[in-house]
Amino acid sequence: MKFSVMFLKTMKEDPxxxxxxxHRLMLxxxxxxxxxxxxxxxxxxxxxxxxxxxxIIREEMNASGAQEVLMPGVQPCEIWQESGRWNVYGKELLRxxxxxxxxxxxxxxxxxxxxxxxxxxxxSYKDLPVTLYQIQAKFRDEIxxxxxxxxxxxxxxxxAYSFDKDDESAEKSYEAQYRAYEKxxxxxxxRFKAVEADSGPIGGNFSHEFMxxxxxxxxxxxxxxxxxxxxxxEKAEIRKQEKALPVKATGGSPEKVHTPDIxxxxxxxxxxGIEPSSLVKTMIYNTDKGIVAALIRGDHEVNEAKLRRSLGxxxxxxxxxxxxxKATGAPRGFAGPVGxxxxxxxxxxxxxxxxxTGANEQDYHVKDVWLSRDTRIEKSDDIRNALPGDDCxxxxxxLEAIRGIEVGHVFKLGTKYSKTMHADFLDEKGELKPMIMxxxxxxxxxxxxxxxxxxxxxxxxxxxxxxxxxxxIVLPLDSRNEEVASTANNIYMELKKTxxxxxxxxxxxxxxxxxxxxxxxxxxxxITIGSKGLAEGLIEIRERATGNVTKICPADALKTITDMLxxxxxxxxxxx
RNA sequence: CGGGGCGUGGCGCAGUCUGGCUAGCGCACCUGCCUUGGGAGCAGGGGGUCGGAGGUUCAAAUCCUCUCGCCCCGACCA
Length: 576
Known about the structure:
Blueprint: H1 21-28, E1 32-36, E2 39-42, H2 44-63, E3 67-68, E4 74-76, H3 77-83, E5 94-97, E6 103-106, H4 111-121, E7 130-139, E8 154-164, H5 167-187, E9 192-196, E10 206-213, E11 219-224, E12 230-232, E13 255-258, H6 265-272, E14 280-287, E15 290-297, H7 304-311, E16 316-318, H8 321-328, E17 343-347, E18 355-361, E19 364-369, H9 371-374, E20 379-381, E21 399-414, H10 416-420, E22 424-426, E23 432-434, E24 436-443, H11 444-454, E25 456-457, E26 460-461, E27 472-476, H12 482-497, E28 502-504, H13 511-521, E29 525-529, H14 531-535, E30 539-543, E31 549-552, H15 557-565
Parallel strand pairs: 3-7, 15-17, 17-20, 27-28, 27-29
Antiparallel strand pairs: 1-2, 4-6, 5-6, 7-8, 8-24, 9-10, 10-21, 11-12, 11-21, 13-19, 14-15, 14-16, 18-19, 21-24, 22-23, 25-26, 29-30, 30-31
Helix pairs in contact: 1-11, 2-5, 2-11
This protein binds one RNA strand of 78 nucleotides through helix 13 and helix 14.
């Protein structure tokens, strides 16, 4: 490609509303253009990267045995009503009406469509297993889109769905996708980690997220320093060591202290001159099985997913002021476990005492509370978010915190959709059974952003070679110098013949300008050709990532480049 | 949805508080000269109903009311 004719305008200055590096650089490098909040056009340079990622995904999905389909983005409400999600999906589902006033939505995901498609086509155990996938635009009306295409409302997604006759087979399908994902992200040249994830209240029973590691990632991951355990903070377990509840209470009964308008952990600690860890927070939750209290140390956070599982409830939300008053007899900020007559769950990390807690009375807290002596606790469980330094649940190691960007998610769905939507088949015994499903997503556009987030410096993008729009940029310093131009052009033509994606900066610009652009758009290798170098019979190859420069004679350009690129994940036809 | 901020040429901004000649600057763009190893220089030039609507005023980018859009923080969230 000739730079002079390419639809690509770089920007010298940072766009005002771009915060994170990938967003800033994608705009500056002319990869994307915003049309509306969270809605972007992909310009030629950006699309080249997106297509490279798509190609890798296609190859690995096909290799895993999955078959590509293409489903509509516009979906009728009927299938969503059938699955039960029309009423639960919420505002993220963009709904609209057609001219006949019928309800439709723009698909945020395709479980309904694929299940509908499969149920009429597959009827026998002999038809299974099947895994289908597509690469297509999704629409989710995010409350707050941000970071460019990282969290966009319309985005490219690869979604796959597996259908199996039994758990054993479903396990294999899941494994196959998990392996395919590892290969995909490896081939994209990304540093990533597969972590255990929470599958939510109505999802399946097991899931993994694939995280691209980057300090600016939105997700917090806890990873063991010793073994390979890693999990999203939503899911991360803490080694359960039941702290005995010894009767070691000292002193008299709990002592009430006047704490006028002192509510938050911070306020109480400051007022009483204590540390948050010597305070018990009493969080009141409303669930489908009634109101409950969760006790947790002042410096910890309740993990609602864990609490939900521990309580065995479907829904769970923080109680409002009115419910708190009803349950505790006091406004928010003064709840405590002493004398509380609702279900109480205690976090396993709590000691027995002495603790400060709310007094269930406005403007009062109590000191010297010993949990075993002074409260009636139903159970003790792991209900808090893990923190760096916590014990690994699998080995004697400690957990560390790292940040990541979720680019893929593999899920065991079970029979959630096949049951409600009657995707059944006849098994060997002639029995009608629901298919076991799995679903597997990759945020294709997010992979591009994440790659840049992980690979950039002060000068711009440093594309991993396999997803770089161009592997090499040929840069004649003075396009008007006959020898420079023809040498550059010859090398360009030679490289192109090998099937490499090559860009030649044939623009009539000063060298500094071209260097800056080449760095900004992140081409992995730059071949610089100038009259001074040619006078000594030399040109140079510079690696974007390292800045390493190799001086060679023009005739060796092809061989040197192909040697450099060998084994780095791209295909070169070096016979030419 | 709550809090904060911002809408002035393609991009980044000044001007708004304190209304007043033709709305300005840098980058980008066009023409010419000059220049070619890290975003050069000189000269000339094109492009903006100042987000929109209404109002106040002799006069509005500037003041008032309404409205739309965008960004950040938070809440929310399969």
